[in-house]
Amino acid sequence: MAPDGLHHSVQARMSAGVATSDVARVNGEAGGLPTRVTGDTLYVVKKAREYGDLSGGRFDVAIGPLVRLWGIGTDHAEVPDPAEIGLARSLVDYRGVEIDEGIVSATVLARRAVGADALSTTVFLLGPSDGMELITRLPGVEGIIVTDDRKVVVSPGLRTVIDVSEGWTVRFHGAEDVQEG
């Protein structure tokens, strides 16, 4: 990809000023539902949190509320009221940016295919921990979740039928043991 095309691609995915970008969608859901982002955006956010740690919080990826309040990068930049600055500062903390590595695959076994399909989608949205918690609470439902970091989480009813393959970590939900293949 040409440098100019790469710039536009990154801008489209990661600019807070582009309403459809990953960053704008994450900001729009702040405090609400998890938002699925591209692998590139996830990598950048993880690095930003790492730099936040390394700098003792001086580099803060969650600076957006202050940037918007001051109007930085807009035609209406201004010095806001000190009380507004204090309120916006209370929202800025990179440590509050939650990163759920997410799910690569979710297989849900249920009596009805339509129910299993809907549950698989729900598990993706909930993430590995909450998704497996839902699976284990529903009668007649079992599941297998593969996370981005290659962990396989298996519901209790499937423990006896799972073969641990080389290079994978399998965690049986509710069990203390972790098997590595």
Describe the SSE topology.
Blueprint: H1 3-14, H2 22-28, H3 39-54, H4 64-70, H5 82-89, E1 103-109, H6 113-126, H7 128-137, E2 142-147, E3 151-154, E4 169-172, E5 178-180
Describe, in plain words, how this protein is organized in 3D.
With 181 residues, this protein is of the alpha+beta class. It has two domains: 3-96, T-fold, CATH 1.10.3980.10; 103-180, no CATH class. It contains seven helices and five strands, in the order αααααβααββββ. A five-stranded mixed sheet has the order 1-2-3-4-5.
The CATH homologous superfamily of the largest domain corresponds to ApbE-like superfamily
Helix tally equals 7
The end-to-end distance, rounded to whole angstroms, is 39 Å
Order of strands across the main sheet: 1-2-3-4-5
> What is the CATH topology assignment of the largest domain?
T-fold
Q: What is the C-level CATH assignment of the largest domain? A: Mainly Alpha
State the helicity in percent bands.
40-55%
CATH architecture of the largest domain: Orthogonal Bundle
Number of strands: 5
**Whole-angstrom Rg:** 21 Å
Structural class, judged by helices and strands? alpha+beta
Largest sheet: 5 strands, mixed
Brief sketch in words of this structure:
By secondary structure, this protein is an alpha+beta fold. It is 41% helix and 13% strand.
Note the main attributes of this structure.
T-fold; 181 residues; elongated; 5 strands; 2 domains; alpha+beta; disordered C terminus; 5-stranded mixed β-sheet; 7 helices
